[in-house]
Every structure is written in structure tokens, then in C-alpha cells.
Amino acid sequence: MSRVMPGTEARLGWIGESVRRVDGIPKTTGEFEYASDLQVAGMLWGHTLRSPYAHARVRAIDLSGALSVAGVHAVLTHSDVPGRKTYGLEFQDQPVLAIDRVRYFGEPVAIVAAEHPEQARRAAERIVVDYEPLVPIVDPERATESEPLHPDPESHVSDHYLRDPRPNVLRTMRIIHGDPDARGDVVVEGTYELGSQDQAFLGPESGLAVPDGKGGVDVYVATQWLHVDREQVAPCLGLPEEQVRIHLAGVGGAFGGREDLSIQIHAALLALHTSRPVKMVYNRQESFSGHVHRHPARIRAEHRATRDGRLVCVQMRILLDGGAYASSSTAVTANATSFACGPYAVPNALIETMSVFTNNPPCGAMRGFGAVQTCFAAEAQMDKLAQALEIDPVELRLLNALGTGDTLPTGQRITSSLPVAEVIRRCAALREPDPEELPRAAIRLPGGAGNTTRGEGVKRGVGFAVGFKNIAYSEGFDDSCAARVRLHEDGSAEVHCAAAEVGQGVTNVILQVARTELATDDVRIAPVTTAAVGSSGSASASRMTWMASGAVRDACRAALVEREARGGGEVDVERVYRHRRTAPLDPETGQVGELPAHVAFACAAMKVIAEVDVELGLTRVVWIGTAQDVGKAVNPQAVEGQIEGGTAQGLGLALMEEIQTRDGLITNASFTDYLIPTALDVPPIVSELVEHPEPDAPYGVKGVGEPPTVVSTAAIVAALRDATGRELARVPVRPDDIVGLQ
Amino acid sequence: MKIELIVNGEQCEADVWEGESLLYALRERLGLYGSKNACEQGECGSCSVLLDGSLVCACLVLAAQAEGHEVVTVEGLADANGLHPVQEAFVETGAVQCGFCTPGLVVATTELLRQNPDPSDDEIREALSGNLCRCTGYTKIFDAVRLAAQRA
After folding, report:
1. Is B129 helix (H, G, I), strand (E, B) or coil?
2. Mind listing the domains of chain B with CATH numbers?
């Protein structure tokens, strides 16, 4: 790390520079400590017994067999939960351990602590649970005609939701904008479907709980939001929040999948029960049940336009399968609804979204958060319109592009930066590679070495898509981030911020802001813990760069003022940053009142070249070019990394990733059966950073993590459609869909 | 059962049970946590190590099978003079995000460049296709491999 004196020209690691990751070296040498690497003397291993059924009544649990296994120190069930028996991000509807019913495959039923992980596993196998299997609700279309999974009708209501008394409705939302009956010269329709995607972060759920000997507990865990973990953990343990300290352990990727709790309460319960430190690590199979997933969706869309290509009206009905528990489904519902039309000026619209409870795996946050699903449908519709109107797809998008000053279907006027037309133009101008000759090496054919032809059936296609979503929390959620800055007499500084480093690089952002503000490179980032600083909010919603930048900036400036006032010495200040207020939409009409529903937006355009072997149904994404609205790139290399990685995740959803279930049971819970893109699947990705400072954000920053994932599934499938001439209305696209088998 | 093996040049002894993987023994018996446990069925490459000079997934090798053999893990690549050039290149090009795949990829890249000091882009892709990365989209990992190859 550089040590440059303030005032010199050779500054390293300030805002706007590509800076090496502070954790880069230890991550390449193997020294970086992930949650799964934690160890402490006297530590026990925890293991979770999970439901083999998607829906069953739990009649009795016999622990005697497990308790007799050598090395076992504790076997706990719901009756051992000393405090509140349920938890959840938005509604406390999820049992810590199943009480009298299990609602999804893999739901935790009992937990074990033992000397060796294998002893814990074997003890869990000897727990006898008397289940009465119930018929699972697996078709979201029929959920509202089924018995309620959560019988209390008031359990999932909120003042700002439209009341919908039907059983198993998680949230119904509607936007009525202008005249939804407005007619156009041309109408295109489509029904689209998306499978459920897994975050598939490589570092499994893991953590270590250490009893403090005074009735409290320290939990070291891979998470996305320390303080909201504490808010959920403490009541279940029956402890005041001060007695529960959550510390960030090394996180091996997150992508939304660590917003909900996994091991936190379980490990703490076992640790408090045994008075020993307890470590828990899920294996990959367990991980598929250990976190929520991206909502599978069915979307029916109708777009009407004038003959010259102007959108007149969009109608969309969106059905999201929320699975067994609420998680953040209500917010995902709001996002899907808000961004359904894509980044286009739409004068009239009717958008109706419903998320439902089923006995399928619970769904919640995943990168893109509802906007991925609707972008896939909306962009397919734009291509259908372009075809019907015989207008170039890029031109059609430019003609309808939203921009600052325009109004969203919610009635919110866009006052922040949203350069949709510019990202479209700059992306369209990227030069794609020339077509490749045949014959060629098998590795360069669709399907790679699996392609047994000479490429006779290979067709090339070009796809284009545009997408957008909100940055930071919306709908009136109190969105704040705290930072604490200590200035030492020797001129060095220490920054505390609870922002979770999940791999995205927020630690560098914090460091760059502090160096810039304090005009010194001598800045240290303190360990991330609830014990030292207030909440940062979650590392999600593409918000952490913006929010942490604001908080660290404000704390640094306040610290400098205080040092000045005091004439030197040690200074320790904490500041809380908030962006401008938002408010919920009207429940009946989905329209804004005085305050906006979203604080800001970011958009991206993507062009994809793909080849398809139309005889074998195999695909190869050849090249991807993208232009993304990034506000101000704090660390350009890291921004590119977010774009490339986010694009690859969208590629996974387009071509291969789907959690498959049968009667609610996951049938592909492994990396053998659930495929994620490899080095052979992801093509070269060229990214253009479009920098228009966000007027309300510190340094003009925007979040960058989600837009590439929002847009890439849509853009890739567009290229496959161009190559095959088929509708390809469902992702992931299978070989059977390409060759036209039913 | 007791096994003896050479890890990163040092003679080691570990007390393992029969079903234990080399990965578990490296991590929990020998305290070498650099090799990662992401899938534990040989699909992701996060636990890549060199066993007698061959690239293997440590999760698919029984600890007992390593008896009398030589293992090099990610911890064994840097020397007293500093980082291995592959490690250096990964940091410099931004090939590291969450980093969970990085140790396996660093080991795999080291082995690739030993066998093929000047790999083509296709050869890089093929050689690293057994190492999953969920964060980077691989683009900057390829940059890292090319940079390390140039400098070698």
C-alpha cells in the first residue's frame, strides 16, 4: 500500500482511480479468512436436520437416538428456542426450527452440536421425526385456490399494500397509468416464463458462534447486513441486542442470498446451550436449501404502439412464486411492477403483479431483484414490436427511451440522471467481431467439444437489450448508513463502517473516500462489527457504494471540523447518512404522492453476438458489448469487474441455470446438476462506462452491481432468437427449445 | 489412522479417519485453509492442489491416498521473495472479487503456465474450465493469466 504525504501529486487510491483490492493479496495466497475457515480452541460443529418433505405436519420428534451418539453435546428443536420462535426480514413468519409444520423441502427441523462434523451429521440422521405428509402447493397459478399455508390472514398485510383476501397472496400490486384501454396501430403479445435461479455463491453459508460467558454471544458470519441479522437473532435468543454482537467473517460471494439468516440463530443457540464455540458450514447440497432464490415468474405482456413506433400502452400481468415464506418477496413484487415497462416513456399502462406462497423453495433477494424477470419480458416485446413495425430494434428503443424529466408509469418524474439514449447509442456503436470461418476448432463451436459436427447447422444472431432498476431502498424504507472516523494524533485515521464486503469491493470504496476527504493515504479500515458502529444497511440494491460514500464522507468532514475546533488531538465521530426520502405508492393505483417511490435509477444497454447450432440445439455466446450508466466510477477496474460478473450471472439464467423441483423437492442441488457458467461459457465482454454524475449522490456515484444482470439475460436470448427465428419465451433456453422439440 | 505426507515441502503427519478427504485433512488437520470447500464433489476447482505435480481436486482424493505423496497447496506458491507471479497478476488485473475461487485458480494457472508458458486464449479457457468463478465473469482472470505469461 502506498504511503504518500498529503499535498504531493503522486496520489494513489483516491476516488476515480483503479485501485488494487486491499484484500487482494491475502485472497491470492490463501491467508484470507472466510467464515468457513474460522476455528477456535474447544470448538464444536453444528449440523442441521432438514425436512425431506415440501409440506408436512410434524407430529413428534424423537431425539434419543441422536443424543446417544458419541461426541454429541446438544440436540435442539423449536422447544429449545428461548425467545421468539420465528424470524424474517419483512414479516417474522419463518420458524427458527419447525414447530408443527414444514412448508418447504430443506426447512430446518432440529440442530446438533458435536465434536466432529461427521458425528453431528450421523447424530442428525438418528433423529426420528414423525411427519404426516400434506399435499404441497407447487403450481403458483393455483395457490390462491388452495388452503392457506399461513392461516392467519393478518400475518402478511401492510397499510401500503393493496388488500387481497385470497389465500396465499403474498402481495398484489397494481399500477394504473393514463388510460390502460388506449389503443395503438400495432399490438404485440407474449407470455414469458423464467425459472428459479440460485445465487450459487462459492463460499457456503458458514459462521462461528462464541458464547461470552456472561449470557451473551458473538456471531462471526458471512452476511450482507450485520445489524438486521442482530435485530432478528436477539429476540429469538431472548436476549437484548447489546448481548448479541455480529461480526463480519470473510464472505465468499452473496448476490442477495445472504440477506436472510442461515446459520446465525442456530449456531448461537447451540453455543449458548453448550457453553462452547460452535461452527456451522453448509455443504453445497444444503446451501441450495439454505438461502432464498430468484423468483420464478410467469409474465403476460401486451404492447401497443403507433405505426411510427411510439409506445402507446403496456399491459402486463406478472406472477411471482414466493415459495413458503415471505423473505423480501413484497419488495421484489414492487420492483417487478415498477420496472415492468423497461426504460421507456409509456403514456398508458396497466401492470398487475401478484406474488404467492407455495411449497416451493422460498424466494427473495437476488441480484436484479424483480427487474430481471420483467426486463426479459419487456425486451422480448420490444423486439416483437420492432419486427411488426419493420423498425430497427435499436432505433425503436431510442425512439422511446426514457430520460431526465420524463415520467415513469408510477407518475414519478425523473429528476435524477438516467441517460438511456446515451447508453443505447454507445452500446450500439461498439464494434462486434467479424463472423468466424468454418471449419474451426471444436472449442469455438456451439457446445464446444460436445459438438460433433463441422458446424453445418451454425447460425449467427445479434441481440440487443436495455434495462434499468432502482438504486437503494424504495417505498419509504428508512435507508441509512453510519460511519465512524477516528483521527489519531500521528495523522493516521481509522474508519468504522458496517458495510459488508461481499467481494464487490466496498472496502476499497470506503478507503478511497476516506483518503480523498482526509487527504492522507494513512487510513485503516477497522474490523466490521455491530459492536463498533451503527447500521450500514445491506450490501444490496446497488446501494452500498452510494450509501457508504455518503456516510464516510460526512464522518470524515465532521472529524476534520472537530479536530480544527479542538486544535488537534484525538477525534472520534460517527455520522449517519440518508438519501432523500421516498414514500410508498398508492395501494389502489400504484401512483406516487408528493414523494418519489425510488430515489434514483441506473440503466444499461447490451449487445450480444451468439451462435446457435440449430440442428443440435447448442449455443455459444461469442461476444458481449455493453454500455452502463455508472454515475461516477470510484474504482473503474472494480466497476468493470461488477459488469463482467453481473453479465455472466445473467448468461447463466439465459442458458443453463434453473433450480428444478418435483413436488416441491429440489432435484438438482449440486454443481453437477445445477450448472453455472464456466470459463468456456462466458465470452469476451467489452464495457463502456457512461459517467453522468448522479446529482443527489456523494461524488455523483451510482450503484453498478445489478444493471448488467438485469439486462444480460434479455440480450442473450434476443441473440438466440435472431439466430433461430424462434420465440424462445422461457429461460433458461434448453436445446429442446432451440430445435423445436416439445 | 495416521498418515505421513509432504505438504509444501514439509514432512507432515495427520491423524485422519478412513472416509476423510485430503481437503478436510489439509484444512482441519493441518490448518491449511487456503484450499476451499465450495462444492466438495470435484465440480468447482476451489480446492485445486498439486498431488505429485498433477492438478487434482483435494475433495476427491482421500487423505489416506495421499500417504507418502507430495502435495502443494496455494500456501506453498509464494516464496520468501514475495508473491508468485501468478498471484501478483491476479491482484493487479482485478481478477479477485470475493476470492473464494482464487486459490484454486491460482494453483490451476500456475500448473497451466508450467505446461504451456504461452497459452492461446482458447487454451486458457479450456485449462481453467474446471475452476468455477461466480463473481468476475472470468474476463479479468484471463487478463491475469496473460499478464503472468508475459512476465514469465
Report:
1. coil
2. 2-75 (3.10.20.30), 85-151 (1.10.150.120)
